[in-house]
Design goal:
single chain, alpha/beta, Rossmann fold, seven-stranded parallel beta sheet, two-stranded parallel sheet, 10 helices, about 40% helix
Length: about 300
């Protein structure tokens, strides 16, 4: 199958490209700037917010399926630069969806648990979005553009994606690990509940959704909902690190630029029942993370 992956230099996109090649698919990787992902697939540099550039790249690839992982994901950066967030998360997504329509391609769009306000989580696929903040609103509007423009679509929501090595910048898991290994005290929220998701596990779930062309909304995240302190404690146990370096704090004490959903997380019952690439529990996820860090397969 011909599959195009956007955001190919990123944490999920890079793993997705390599996984799809191993599975025997013809992959075209799209991202901005120079190639930073290795693998036996074609790479095209493309600014997806430019409709002409997006059309040119998609016409060259002629995909049967597009997996759109590209996004501006740094929450506070989105709050400080709403125009950039709009361009990356709404305009670019609409451009990709329009090209999917032109090519009659199935579109898998990667979204986030931040489309919910985080008051009543964890959320299943039928929950009604109520986004707060620039990042959340632009990701929700990206979902809406997919529903409106793509001929056949899948929206795959995930949360707190981590993996090693990181791509362009540290992710929550890689940052926490390096800080703890350096003996630094880290402040972790005890009142923000999330679904930590290993990037490779997310990529495997996305690949299956794409190849099987499973439509609708899917939660593609880790199988457990924990607060960030609990995640840190579990990491310490798996890596043999010092739990006393973990300092509990509350969201209200952090002074963050953008609102965070406090009680979020995603229910993955649907994926557990239907996918062979099953969402991983926290311990299994962290053990795989440790294998990545140690360079083991």
């Amino acid at each position: 199958m011909r599959i195009t992956v956007t955001g190919a230099n990123g944490l999920v996109g890079s793993r997705l490209c390599r996984w799809l090649v191993v599975e025997g698919h013809t992959v075209t990787a799209l991202a901005r700037g120079e190639r930073r992902v290795r693998g036996d697939f074609e790479y095209l540099s493309c600014d997806l917010s430019d409709p002409t550039a997006t059309s040119r790249a998609m016409e060259a690839a002629r995909p049967q399926v597009i997996i759109h992982t590209a996004s501006m994901t740094e929450v506070d950066a989105c709050e400080r630069a709403p125009a950039a967030a709009w361009s990356a998360n709404v305009i670019a997504t609409a451009n990709v969806a329009e090209r999917a329509r032109d090519l009659d391609a199935h579109l898998v769009h990667v979204s986030t648990d931040y489309v919910f306000d985080g008051q009543d989580g964890p959320y299943d696929e039928h929950a009604r979005p109520d986004p707060r903040g620039v990042y959340a609103r632009t990701k929700w509007l990206g979902e809406e553009s997919v529903k409106l423009l793509a001929p056949r679509w899948t929206i795959a929501r995930t949360a707190v994606v981590y993996g090693y090595p990181p791509s362009l910048r540290p992710n929550f898991g890689s940052w926490l690990l390096e800080a703890l290994r350096a003996g630094q005290v880290v402040r972790l929220f005890v009142d923000q509940f999330v679904s930590p998701s290993l990037a490779l596990n997310v990529a495997e779930q996305l690949a299956e959704l794409a190849v099987r062309r499973l439509e609708g909304i899917w939660n593609t995240a880790g199988a457990e909902v924990v607060n960030r302190m609990q995640f840190g404690e579990a990491m310490c146990d798996v890596f043999g690190l010092d739990r006393s370096l973990l300092q509990p704090v509350r969201l209200s004490d952090a002074g963050l630029a953008s609102p965070r959903p406090p009680r979020s997380g995603l229910r993955v019952d649907k994926a557990l029942a239907a996918l062979k690439a099953r969402p991983l529990g926290l311990k299994a996820s962290l053990e795989q993370f440790r294998a990545e860090v140690e360079g083991r397969p």
